[in-house]
Structure formats: structure tokens, C-alpha cells
């Protein structure tokens, strides 16, 4: 038995000399230092059990050496030397999958050119001269000798070097999915069956470890997040080499068995398996930036039952998120994006300039969100992150210097949400600073008062003056109206009214929309459209400059214009009823009392509508809006208050509900205008009978339409006695004249 052991040692030393000489020839061609022929091993103090391998824990960055009190630089084994050579001195080669000029006939079993070595890894490349000595027949050796030889080969394979009895099989270059990163091995058939089973259980670790290295090499320079993840994987690789060096040391001291190696490598195998699956999926799905972080967070949630592996993935995710969080910090603190690989969740469309677009279009299109690059842990804050950087950008464009004295300790920890308060603080600071700029430097409050004065008809003398001077022009067909003339008449009206002292009066302009206000509401509510008329197409527009357009944007202006058009149209109908009665009262007709009664009911209804909209809805809501606006301190609250104000006004004015209400109001106004036009026509004495019948027809049509409108209000309000729409019903039906008709068939 002693003779056999001595023979085995001699054979092992002979094979080691041959392999070292072969490797020396290769290293000489690379002009790199040769691996030491007889490395000086670091002797560690044995534990009471004689075990120097790490306890049953998976490898995590910086834990192997710390746990064993073992410094890899003190170990002169071939594995630490190999890792140092490959990581520091070996010339950089092209990554896997990168095109190069080579003949496929000269390719090795991996599909790479002969002599090509994957970036920073061995990858089982053939080394000329290795294994030239005679290969021993395992069947002729005892079990202990077989185990020593196969352990030596196994450690070689785990480090990415070909063995004598364990050889990697050529990879299928046409493989799909994760199979393209896997390595399959063939074990010598003469190896004892019991040993072979253990070897097959350990070899997946070699396949996964090498697959991780291939994925790292293939994703080199694929973005800051990928680079940070790869750097952490390289640190794990170094710790793995330390573990192999310790295993080799015990093998040389004849203290390592195959079962012992398998036992202590099991946790590491599980960890490498999970890492291999993760990095392979990242590579196969072409994930980048925030998508990589989302994938890592998803894996962490799946590993709730395996705490040790979960901790390793938490470390991976934290390190990979460092460059992403730096980009985030720069954006929310200075409004600057440094993202050459398009990894960040905010995209800067640099080809869009403020001078080429309207302010609100520029605001919406210059900086946008990349949905694919939003990490899952930032999904809830993505809109706030976007707005924070935008606000900082606006402040800088206004010539203000952003002096944020807060400390931004922005880091990502998958176990908590410590980044959320930092983002919120940055957001509120930016919103408050921008709000101060809008209020103090750009007179936002003055602009809001001007909008109420003109678009909500608060400036009564101006509206009457404008309608007097523009009535002739607005009475024309829309194609005959001259916008330039309207603007001139608008300027005249402003100068003749008390609005001449308004510093923002020049922001007001006239507009003609190709549809009336009811058709506009029909489009918004997806109802049937009607052909527009000329007078009904008029609208005021209030133009503001940047950055006031952040508050008074296109959407907000459209809502103000909807309120204006309904008020303006009702005011126009009221004026026509007054004008027609003045002209008709000069005539002597037998139907004067009937005409007076119909006209008065029409006038009361239109005036009640105006009073309800302006006094009961707009005025109290506006007062609440302004009072709250004086107390807030950031832009977000201002936008929310304005949105609530407009919603309440549109809802209570029946402009946000079904267009049946708009149709009823519009039809009532149309009947009134037709009636005014009818009674202004000259009628001959023999036509008086027909005239009286026509007046009765107008009376019936108006009454039926009004009753239908009141029924709709009552149905909408239901039993809610606090609904303001009921105020309109009681105001129109103040004396109970329509009560019986409303209750009939209700």
C-alpha cells in the first residue's frame, strides 16, 4: 500500500511538471510571468476537527477570506496565481459574440479561434503541450488513487482549466436560451461509479461559474448598471478562487475527500445556480439600466425562503444600483442627466427646443419617462422624480440659482425604502422654490385675477362694452368675420373700460373656433356633433409666457374657455331678448301681451341660468380657491387646487356631465334667438293670425324644452338636497308654475 501511494505521488509530480512546462510555453508566448512550479503554500492553523474548509455557507463578496482569516495574497497556489494573471496582466480580448476576422476551421471546441481566450477567464481553452505524458488507466488504480486524481481534475475544471479525466464537451453554437452559456462535461468511464456520481453533482458548479463569466464578458461596456453588476460578480469570482485554493491546499495535505468537497461546495453551488440563472436572463432579455435592477429585485422576492442566497442578491442589487442612484441624485438635485447608454428613467429629448414649440408642449415633450427603464422600487415615485428635475430646470431657466442645502444621501437598499424620503424632500424643495419664483417674480396671482376678469366675465363693464362694439362683426358668418378687426375692437373695449389699468390686458386675444360650445362638449363626451354657427364660435384666449404656462397650460385654458363660451352665449341671448323687445314694443299689435309673456319667461330663464353659474357656482368656488392658494407653498398643491376648482365649476354648471344638459341649455338659447328674430320681422295685418299661432308654438316649444331640462336636473339631484343643481330648479320654478308639469310622468 505504501508502494502504491509513493507511486501515485511520483506520477502526480511528473504530471504536474509536464503541465507546468506546457503552461510555461504558452505564458512565454504571451510574455507573462510563469506560474510558480512549486508554490509555497500558506499554512493555516487546524481547527480541533482538522477541518480548514469554510463552514457550510455560500460565497458572498468579501466573506470567504474574512471568515477564514485567510489572505488570498499569501497563497501561492496555481488558482490564485491564475486569477491574478487573468484579471490584471492578461491582454484584453474581444467579448463573446463580438465579430472578429478568423477562420471557423481554426476554431476550438467553444467556437472561438485557436488561441482565443474569453475576456478575464480560461473557458477551458486548449493549451498545447498539456497532458503529453501518459494518461493513467483509472481501472488499474485503487479507489483512493482514483479519488486523488479526480479531485485534482475537478479543481482544475472548477477554475476553468481542462482536466485529464474530466473534459468539457463542445458547446452547441446553435443552442437557444440559457443552454448557450452552459458547459457539459464527460467523465472518464473507468472512474468508480460511486465517485462518478459525486463528480456529476459537483460539475454543475463549474458550468454555472463559467457561464457567469461568459455572461460578464459578453455584457462588457453595456452600461453603468451592468458594469457595476459585473464588478461585483468579479469580486465573487475572486472569492471563489480563494475557496479553490484552500481546497487544493487540503488536497496536497491529503486531507480532502470527494464527499467532503461536495458537502462544503453545496451552498456555493446553490448560490452560483441562482446567479447563473439571473445573469443569463439579463443577457438573453437584453436588459439594461433600470430593467436590470427590477430583475434583481424580483429575484430577491423569489428567494424569501433562502436567506443566505437572498443576502448575496441584496448585495448584488445594492452595488449594481450605485451608478443609477448617482444619476438619480444628479437629476433631482441639479436637473442634469448624464446617461450615454439610455439607462435612466428620464429621457432628455435634446432635439426639442423651447423656441420651436409652445411652452406647454415643450414642458411635456422635452423630458419624458422611459417606462422600460423604471425600476420597480421607483415606480410609485417616477412621476415625482420627473417633475422634480423639471422644476429645477425651470428655476435655472428663469435665471435663479438653486441653493439646496439638504444632504442627499441617496442609496438603494432592497430591504427598505430609505430612498423615498430623500426623493420626497427633493421634490418639495423644488416645487416650493418654483412656486416662489412664479408668485414673486412672474406675478402669478395677477394672471389668475385677469383670467377671472375676462374669461369668467367678472369685468362687467368691459364685457358690455365689447359686445356693443363687436355685435355687428360677430353677427356675420364665421367665414366673413375678420379676426384682426376683432382684436382692434378688443383693444378699444379694454381702453374704454376699467380694465385699462390691468397690467396683463395685452395677454387677452380673440379667437374663432370651428365649432360652437355645444359641439365642443359633444366631442369631449363623444356625442353626435352638430354644425357650428358663426357667432357661437367666438372665444377669448389668454396667452402667457414661460414659466406661467406651467400653471395656465393648454388643458387648463380649454376648461376656462368652456365656461366662458357658455356664459358668453347666455349673455348674448339675454342681450338679443332685450333688443328685440325694444324694437317690438314700438309696434302696436293685438298679440302684444302674448309676446310679452313668452319673452319674459325666456328672459327670466336665461337670467336665472347666468345668476346660477356666476354667483352660486363660480364666485364661491373662486373665493375658496384664492384663499387656499395664498396658504400653499408648492406648485403641486397649486395645480391640484386649480384642477379642483375647474372640476367643481364644470360639474355644477353641467359641463362635466352627460351632454343632455348641454343640449337642453343650448336648445333653450336657440329657441330664444329664433323667437327674437321672428318678432323683429315685419308682419302685415292679414298675417297677424298666423303670427299669433307662431308665438304660441314658440311658447309650447320653449316650455317643453324647459320642463325636460328641469326633470333632468331633478333626476340628477335625486334625494340629495345639498346638490346645487336643485338651486337652479327652485330659482326657475320659484312660484311653482312648472311644478305640476315636472311631477307629471316623473
TrEMBL record:
InterPro entries in the cross-refs: GCP (IPR007259), GCP_C (IPR040457), GCP_C_sf (IPR042241), GCP_N (IPR041470)
A Pfam family recorded for this sequence: GCP_N_terminal
Residue ranges constituting the Gamma tubulin complex component C-terminal domain according to the UniProt record: 444-738
GO CC, alphabetical: gamma-tubulin complex; microtubule; spindle pole
GO biological process: cytoplasmic microtubule organization; meiotic cell cycle; microtubule nucleation; mitotic cell cycle; spindle assembly
Region (Disordered): 34-63
Keywords noted in UniProt: Cytoplasm, Cytoskeleton, Microtubule
GO molecular function: gamma-tubulin binding; microtubule minus-end binding
Main location: cytoplasm
Ranges for domain Gamma tubulin complex component protein N-terminal: 151-440
Location within or outside the cell: Cytoplasm, Cytoskeleton, Microtubule organizing center
UniProt record similarity statement: Belongs to the TUBGCP family.
Protein name: Gamma-tubulin complex component
Amino acid at each position: 500500500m505504501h508502494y502504491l501511494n509513493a507511486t501515485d505521488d511520483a506520477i502526480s509530480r511528473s504530471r504536474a511538471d509536464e503541465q507546468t512546462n506546457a503552461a510555461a510555453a504558452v505564458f512565454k508566448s504571451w510574455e507573462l510571468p510563469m506560474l510558480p512550479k512549486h508554490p509555497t503554500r500558506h499554512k493555516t492553523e487546524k481547527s480541533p476537527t482538522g477541518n480548514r474548509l469554510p463552514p457550510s455557507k455560500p460565497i458572498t463578496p468579501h466573506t470567504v477570506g474574512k471568515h477564514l482569516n485567510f489572505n488570498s495574497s499569501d497563497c501561492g497556489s496555481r488558482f490564485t496565481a491564475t486569477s491574478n494573471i487573468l484579471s490584471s496582466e492578461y491582454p484584453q480580448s474581444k467579448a463573446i459574440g463580438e465579430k472578429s476576422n478568423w477562420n471557423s476551421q481554426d476554431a476550438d471546441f467553444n467556437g472561438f479561434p485557436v488561441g482565443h481566450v474569453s475576456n478575464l477567464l480560461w473557458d477551458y481553452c486548449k493549451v498545447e503541450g498539456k497532458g503529453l505524458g501518459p494518461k493513467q488507466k483509472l481501472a488499474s488504480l485503487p479507489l483512493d488513487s482514483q479519488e486523488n486524481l479526480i479531485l485534482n481534475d475537478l479543481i482544475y475544471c472548477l477554475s476553468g482549466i481542462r482536466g485529464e479525466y474530466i473534459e468539457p464537451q463542445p458547446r452547441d453554437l446553435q443552442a437557444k436560451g440559457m443552454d448557450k452559456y452552459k458547459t457539459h462535461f464527460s467523465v472518464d468511464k473507468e472512474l468508480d461509479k460511486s465517485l462518478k456520481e459525486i463528480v456529476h453533482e459537483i460539475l454543475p458548479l463549474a458550468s454555472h461559474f463559467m457561464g457567469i463569466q461568459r455572461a460578464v464578458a459578453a455584457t462588457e461596456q453595456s452600461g453603468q448598471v451592468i458594469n457595476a453588476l459585473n464588478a461585483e460578480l468579479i469580486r465573487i469570482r475572486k472569492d471563489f478562487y480563494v475557496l479553490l485554493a484552500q481546497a487544493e491546499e487540503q488536497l496536497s495535505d491529503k486531507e480532502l475527500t470527494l464527499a467532503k468537497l461536495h458537502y462544503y461546495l453545496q451552498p456555493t453551488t446553490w448560490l452560483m445556480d441562482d446567479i447563473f440563472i439571473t445573469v443569463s436572463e439579463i443577457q438573453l432579455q437584453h436588459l439594461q439600466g433600470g430593467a436590470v435592477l427590477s430583475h434583481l429585485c424580483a429575484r430577491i422576492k423569489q428567494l424569501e425562503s433562502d436567506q443566505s442566497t437572498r443576502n448575496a442578491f441584496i448585495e448584488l442589487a445594492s452595488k449594481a444600483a450605485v451608478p443609477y442612484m448617482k444619476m438619480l441624485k444628479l437629476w433631482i438635485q441639479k436637473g442634469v442627466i448624464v446617461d450615454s447608454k439610455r439607462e435612466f428613467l428620464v429621457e432628455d429629448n435634446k432635439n426639442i427646443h423651447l423656441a420651436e414649440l409652445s411652452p406647454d408642449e415643450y414642458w411635456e415633450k422635452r423630458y419624458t419617462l422611459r417606462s422600460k427603464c423604471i425600476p420597480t422600487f421607483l415606480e410609485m415615485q417616477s412621476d415625482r422624480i420627473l417633475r422634480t428635475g423639471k422644476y429645477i430646470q425651470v428655476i435655472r431657466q428663469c435665471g435663479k440659482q438653486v441653493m439646496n442645502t439638504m444632504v442627499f444621501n441617496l442609496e438603494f437598499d432592497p430591504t427598505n425604502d430609505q430612498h423615498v424620503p430623500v426623493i420626497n424632500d427633493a421634490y418639495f424643495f423644488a416645487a416650493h422654490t418654483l412656486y416662489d419664483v412664479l408668485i414673486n417674480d412672474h406675478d402669478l396671482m395677477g394672471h389668475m385675477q385677469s383670467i377671472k376678469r375676462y374669461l369668467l366675465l367678472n369685468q362687467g363693464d368691459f364685457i358690455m362694452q365689447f359686445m356693443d362694439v363687436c355685435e355687428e362683426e360677430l353677427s356675420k358668418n364665421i367665414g366673413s368675420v375678420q379676426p384682426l378687426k376683432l382684436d382692434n375692437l378688443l383693444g378699444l373695449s379694454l381702453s374704454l373700460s376699467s380694465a385699462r389699468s390691468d397690467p396683463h390686458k395685452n395677454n387677452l386675444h380673440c379667437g374663432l373656433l370651428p365649432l360652437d360650445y355645444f359641439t365642443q362638449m359633444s366631442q369631449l363626451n363623444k356625442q353626435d356633433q352638430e354644425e357650428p354657427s358663426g357667432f357661437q364660435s367666438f372665444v377669448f384666449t389668454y396667452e402667457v409666457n414661460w414659466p406661467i404656462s406651467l400653471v395656465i397650460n393648454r388643458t387648463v385654458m380649454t376648461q376656462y374657455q368652456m365656461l366662458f363660451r357658455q356664459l358668453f352665449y347666455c349673455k348674448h341671448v339675454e342681450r338679443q331678448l332685450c333688443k328685440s323687445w325694444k324694437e317690438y314694443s314700438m309696434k302696436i299689435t293685438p298679440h302684444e301681451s302674448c309676446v310679452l309673456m313668452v319673452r319674459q319667461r325666456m328672459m327670466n330663464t336665461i337670467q336665472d341660468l347666468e345668476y346660477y353659474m356666476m354667483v352660486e357656482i363660480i364666485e364661491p368656488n373662486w373665493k375658496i380657491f384664492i384663499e387656499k392658494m395664498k396658504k400653499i407653498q408648492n406648485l403641486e398643491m397649486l395645480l391640484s387646487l386649480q384642477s379642483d376648482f375647474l372640476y367643481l365649476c364644470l360639474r355644477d354648471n353641467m359641463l362635466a356631465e352627460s351632454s343632455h344638459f348641454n343640449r337642453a341649455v343650448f336648445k333653450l338659447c336657440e329657441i330664444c334667438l329664433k323667437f327674437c328674430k321672428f318678432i323683429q320681422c315685419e308682419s302685415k295685418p292679414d298675417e297677424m293670425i298666423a303670427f299669433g299661432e307662431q308665438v304660441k308654438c314658440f311658447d309650447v316649444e320653449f316650455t317643453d324644452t324647459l320642463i325636460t331640462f328641469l326633470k333632468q336636473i331633478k333626476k340628477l339631484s335625486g334625494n340629495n338636497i345639498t346638490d346645487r343643481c336643485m338651486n337652479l330648479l327652485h330659482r326657475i320654478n320659484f312660484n311653482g308654475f312648472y311644478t305640476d308639469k315636472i311631477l307629471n310622468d316623473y
